[in-house]
Design a protein that fits this description.
Number of strands of chain A: 0
Helix content of chain B: 25-40%
Largest sheet of chain A: none
CATH superfamily of the largest domain in chain B: P-loop containing nucleotide triphosphate hydrolases
Radius of gyration of chain A: 25 Å
Strand content of chain B: 25-35%
CATH topology of the largest domain in chain A: MetI-like fold
Organism (chain B): Paeniroseomonas aquatica
Structural class of chain A: mainly alpha
Radius of gyration of chain B: 24 Å
Number of helices of chain B: 9
CATH topology of the largest domain in chain B: Rossmann fold
Distance between the termini of chain B: 15 Å
Distance between the termini of chain A: 34 Å
Strand order of the largest sheet of chain B: 6-7-8-3-9-10
Helix content of chain A: over 70%
Order of helices and strands of chain A: HHHHHHHHHHHHHHHHHHHHHHHHH
Largest interface: A-B, 21 and 27 residues
Keywords (chain B): ATP-binding, Nucleotide-binding, Transport
GO molecular function, one term (chain B): ATP binding
Structural class of chain B: alpha+beta
Number of strands of chain B: 20
Shape of chain B: elongated
CATH superfamily of the largest domain in chain A: MetI-like
Oligomer: heterodimer
CATH class of the largest domain in chain A: Mainly Alpha
InterPro entries (chain B): AAA+_ATPase (IPR003593), ABC_SmlMolc_Importer (IPR050093), ABC_transporter-like_ATP-bd (IPR003439), ABC_transporter-like_CS (IPR017871), Mo/tungstate-bd_C_term_dom (IPR008995), P-loop_NTPase (IPR027417), Transp-assoc_OB_typ2 (IPR013611)
Protein name (chain B): ABC transporter ATP-binding protein
Strand content of chain A: under 5%
Shape of chain A: globular
Number of helices of chain A: 25
């Protein structure tokens, strides 16, 4: 027992994931390989998916959009992350917050913001027409450009926040050392900064690509029929056609794509970089690949040094020095501005969402707070989020505690399992849970929502607590034990008080994850048990209205407040 | 003099201390981590009120032994007795042992007073008693005015004193200290050594003190337990260990000395450098003579060696002369005060009195 002690703490979390994550996903796989009528093994659903032109086209569109989104987010995000990484520690926090807020802002609020911004009579067209830049309103909504803007905007924070820790983690003396060794700035950037940041870039690419694969909110609301993505197909197959097996097959294809991408990534970089640790030595057996990579980098460096020399002569060193901060400012504005547009819209006194609002009033907030439907959904979201946060912190916290001290050879596998709900597309998890809950009678119940959201939130609480534990001094626990404290007293009086900050942060992150979730809610909540995001989604599909703007303001303010609190607590105390 | 097999048991009996006085008795305790042997079966006794240091280089098993004593590590074999009771399987928090950590391990979220009161609260002492004893402990380490501070607001030396007070306050059966002065600078370390000696004398506590610093061990201990390669090398008072090392390891780890290796033949040690008379104590086969620097004098005499001066080391109170012998060993001697050191490269002779050397097996 004593030897098993620490590992035992992981058991509840492992059991939970086995029942509510692994089992449903495997069941989905089984479903997709079975003939509903006879129950025999069949590949017919996959043949149907890959043999029908419409579905093949959707697959192509999904991969194209995911790939383009990944490239866009990396290209826009890299310079911003690079700039953030080189800020002094004290000042960086504020600017990182400007990325954190859009990261945690509900996808629905973000998408709603783009709908009113990009609309024919929206903010963007008003500004461009008013400025005389264009003669006729641009039609970007309900087309690929709209989808790309929305997707890149949605994924950019994830890309930046994934790259950032690796960039900050690189030794600050290395670029200086390269300088003293005779490398011009162009060479320093590509051969030192860029090369060392590659694991972070790859991790960002991986997470953005996988998340994009399973996206449906943005393409459904900002795109047209030609921009339908796989997840939308899955949803309509289940909710409209009730065709479980085929939806399962589509979900399995998405899962396979995500897993293959992850596997390739793991072979090349190692999974541990996803959780923000810079990888150690490069892997063996890739000398040839490495040599090619370094050759490319040195080529890029040479080109940049040459361009840099010409540019310096043309515009001067000063102007060049401003390029990076200017880029950072533009990207930060791109991230923040759309949401800010929503705020005045919430206070409009008009029946329409025109910009600028003709006058200001609180009437739409009055509508929101006077509506039983909206308030009921809000209260339900709060209850579910609270339950989720409690459950996810207990399960994830104990798991992190167990794995931090475990020397088991299963440690790596358990670590991967706790992060897995972040890698498996949400729509796959949601679909699997829907099927499981239908059998268990948990559909349209708050308990079902809490269980489903806990699956989604578990990786966040696990990673947050694990990060705090990395700096934890285990000798304090030993000291307390030698001073006479039992194991329970050590946990209650030493470990938990010292980890308080991380636990509160984990709690709030889990809370936001649940409060924002639409994917699970789409299937599991319904009828009278609708949640706030589900209610927003239903309204956004039907008809945009100023109440939505008022609700968006409430959600945005609330989530931002929670986030700022969480960040404050995450800072290690003392 | 027969070579001691198991460690301290023989030493205790030879000194005539009755076994019932043992505060701590370790009987064949062993520990391995996979293929790595952290601790060969060792046996040791610590007497009531004694300050014993466990001395050894890193990796010698001293920290493992300490962790086994306080229950943080479970031994693979052997038994452990405190006051004659078997405590081998008792969990840490019931063992009544105090441990002073190298990095102090003060609770950062508790004040100095709360840190010191922690062990008393864990034992369910009434609040009034806790207050009283915390105040007394603070006074003992002269930190009465800092009770409300948090550990991070104290200097290294003050934190160390809080750690000591937290340990002494509940009067555990045994106090273990794991390189407690390792993080302090030299001056403060010497000051704290004196404080620890004083606390030991005043409280009569039984203390087991782990260190890799031989000077610290010599300065503090009633007895030293010297460890090497997961085994106990020798147990004895500082004087015994210094004057009568039983192995070449002891001779070279504690202080410096000249080692002359050879084979015993009759009443002489035959070495490549010549035949040397044997001191008291008989051994057969391969052996070495250990001569301390202060017993080696310039010039020829009873036993003489010759060499070439390679270095002179000035250390304030004394000057040491290093010279290379014909077989490659380096000999060390202490120059008498006021004597000018011979130039590097000069040939010198040195001698010692037969009974000043110690014979150890190889």
């Amino acid at each position: 027992m004593r030897r098993l002690g620490p590992a035992l703490y992981a058991l509840p979390g492992l059991a939970f994931l086995a029942v509510f994550f692994l089992y449903p996903v495997v069941q989905l796989l089984a479903l997709s390989l079975r003939n509903e009528g006879t129950g025999e093994f069949t590949l017919q659903h996959f043949e149907h998916a890959l043999g029908t032109e419409v579905y093949v086209r959707v697959l192509g569109i999904t991969f194209t959009i995911a790939l383009q989104t990944t490239l866009g987010a990396l290209l826009l995000g890299y310079p911003l992350a690079h700039w953030l990484a080189r800020l002094p520690d004290g000042r960086r926090g504020w600017f990182v917050m400007l990325v954190m807020i859009p990261f945690w802002t509900s996808y629905l609020v973000k998408t709603f913001a783009w709908m009113i911004t990009l609309d024919q009579n929206g903010v963007m067209n008003r500004l461009l027409l008013g400025g005389g830049i264009i003669d006729a309103p641009l039609e970007v909504l309900h087309g690929r450009i709209g989808v790309m803007i929305g997707m890149v905007h949605a994924m950019l924070p994830l890309a930046v926040l994934t790259m950032l820790p690796v960039m900050i983690g690189t030794d600050r003396h290395l670029p200086r050392a390269a300088g003293t060794l005779g490398a011009p700035p162009g060479q320093v950037f590509w051969r030192v900064h860029f090369h060392l940041s590659l694991p972070g870039v790859a991790a960002a690419g991986l997470l953005v690509f996988i998340t994009s694969l399973g996206f449906f909110i943005t393409p459904a609301l900002l795109g047209g029929p030609k921009d339908t993505m796989l997840a939308q197909l899955v949803i309509s197959q289940v909710t409209e056609m009730m065709n479980w097996s085929f939806a399962g097959a589509l979900a399995v294809m998405m899962l396979a794509a995500a897993l293959v991408t992850t596997w390739v990534y793991d072979r090349l970089f190692g999974l541990s970089t996803v959780s923000g640790q810079a990888s150690g030595a490069p892997r063996r057996g890739q000398d040839a690949l490495r040599a090619v990579g370094i050759a490319i980098l040195s080529g890029l460096a040479a080109v940049q040094v040459a361009i840099g020399a010409v540019m310096q002569r043309l515009v001067g060193r000063r102007v060049l020095g401003w390029l990076l901060p200017a880029h950072a400012a533009v990207v930060l504005l791109f991230l923040g501005a759309p949401t800010l547009v929503v705020i005045p819209m919430g206070f409009t006194d008009s029946n329409f969402l025109g910009f600028p609002p003709p006058g200001y009033s609180l009437r739409w907030f009055a509508v929101y707070f006077g509506s039983e439907l909206w308030l009921g959904a809000t209260v339900r979201s709060f209850v579910v989020a609270f339950g989720t946060a409690c459950l996810a912190v207990v399960l994830g916290g104990f798991a992190a505690l167990a794995l931090a001290r475990s020397e088991s050879r299963w440690r790596g596998a358990m670590f991967a399992l706790f992060l897995a709900p972040m890698i498996v597309p949400r729509i796959v998890v949601a679909l699997g849970l829907f099927y499981l809950f239908a059998q268990m009678g948990l559909v349209a119940t708050e308990a079902g929502l809490v269980l489903g959201h806990t699956v989604l939130a578990l990786p966040f609480t696990f990673v947050t607590v694990a990060a705090v534990l990395k700096g934890y001094d285990w000798r304090l626990d030993q000291a307390a034990a030698t001073l006479g404290a039992t194991r329970a007293k050590v946990l209650l009086q030493i470990t938990i008080p010292l980890l308080k900050g991380g636990l509160v942060a984990a709690f709030l992150f889990a809370f936001i994850t649940s409060f924002d979730d639409l994917t699970v809610a789409l299937f599991v909540s319904g009828g009278v048990t609708t949640t706030l995001p589900k209610q927003m989604w239903d309204d956004m599909i039907l008809q945009l209205n100023p109440t939505l703007a008022a609700v968006s303001v409430v959600v945005f303010v609330l989530v931002t407040a929670l986030l700022v609190t969480a960040e404050r607590f995450r800072k290690p105390a003392g | 003099m027969e070579r001691q097999s198991g460690g301290g048991l023989g030493a205790v009996q030879r000194l005539g201390a009755p076994l019932s006085q043992a505060k701590l008795r370790i009987d064949g305790i062993a520990k391995r981590y996979g293929p790595v042997v952290a601790l060969e079966p060792v046996s040791l006794e610590v007497r009531t009120g004694e300050l014993m240091t466990i001395l050894g280089p890193s990796g010698s098993g001293k920290t493992t032994l300490l962790q086994v004593i306080c229950g943080l590590v479970e031994p693979d074999g052997g038994r452990l007795f405190i006051d004659g009771h078997d405590r081998t399987a008792m969990p840490v928090h019931q063992r009544d042992i105090g441990l002073v950590f190298q990095n102090y391990a003060l609770f950062p979220h508790l004040t100095v007073g709360e840190n010191i009161g922690f062990p008393l609260k864990m034992r369910g002492r009434p609040a009034a008693e806790v207050r009283e004893r915390v105040a007394a402990a603070l006074a003992m380490v002269q930190l009465g005015h800092l009770a409300a501070r948090f550990p991070r607001e104290l200097s290294g030396g003050q934190q160390q004193r809080v750690a000591l007070a937290r340990c002494f306050v509940y009067q555990p059966a045994i106090i273990l200290m794991d390189e407690p002065l390792g993080a302090l600078d030299r001056q403060l370390r010497e000051h704290m050594q004196i404080e620890i000696k004083k606390l030991h004398r005043e409280t009569g506590a039984t203390i087991v003190y782990v260190t890799h610093d031989q000077e610290e061990a010599l300065a503090l201990s009633d007895r030293i337990c010297l460890m090497n390669h997961a085994r106990i090398e020798q147990v004895g008072t500082p004087q015994e260990i210094y004057a009568h090392p039983r192995t070449t390891f002891t001779a070279s780890f504690i202080g410096t000395s000249t080692l002359l290796r050879g084979v015993v033949e009759g009443d002489a040690l035959v070495t490549p450098l010549g035949r040397f008379a044997l001191p008291e104590g008989r051994l057969a086969g391969a052996a070495a003579l250990v001569i301390r620097p202060e017993h080696l004098r310039l010039g020829a005499g009873e036993n003489t060696i010759e060499g070439v001066v390679s270095e002179t080391v000035y250390a304030g109170a004394e000057t040491r002369l290093l010279f290379d012998l014909a077989d490659g060993t380096t000999a060390v001697l202490r120059l008498p005060t006021g004597m000018a050191a011979p130039e590097i490269g000069t040939a010198v002779q040195a001698h010692w009195a037969t009974d000043a050397a110690v014979l150890v097996p190889l």
